[in-house]
Specification:
mainly alpha
Length: about 90
């Protein structure tokens, strides 16, 4: 497998023997070449999930603003039909 981007950063994490053994076993199960590859994939997955959560938050805010705008338009239309009801509830 060819490395497409030059890797220039390293991180260091201390693990117990049991944790390291579990990671090595997971490498075999997942088909990772090394603990480094498995860890890199896990970090990428976390970053991708964060990006999706950020995008979802932005979309939810857009939706909320649209709903607020629709609510205002409904109030305006209702006031044209029966102004006394809107003034009492508004």
């Amino acid at each position: 497998m060819t490395v497409l981007k030059l890797r220039t950063r390293t991180i260091s994490v201390r693990l117990s023997d049991d944790e390291y053994t579990a990671l090595k076993g997971l490498c075999l199960i997942r088909g990772a070449r090394s603990v480094s590859d498995l860890t890199r994939d896990a970090v990428r997955s976390l970053l991708d999930r964060k990006e999706r959560e950020d995008l979802l938050g932005e979309r939810m805010e857009e939706f909320r603003l649209q709903m607020k705008g629709l609510d205002e338009k409904i109030r305006q239309l209702a006031s044209l039909i029966d102004p006394s009801k809107i003034e009492a509830n508004g």
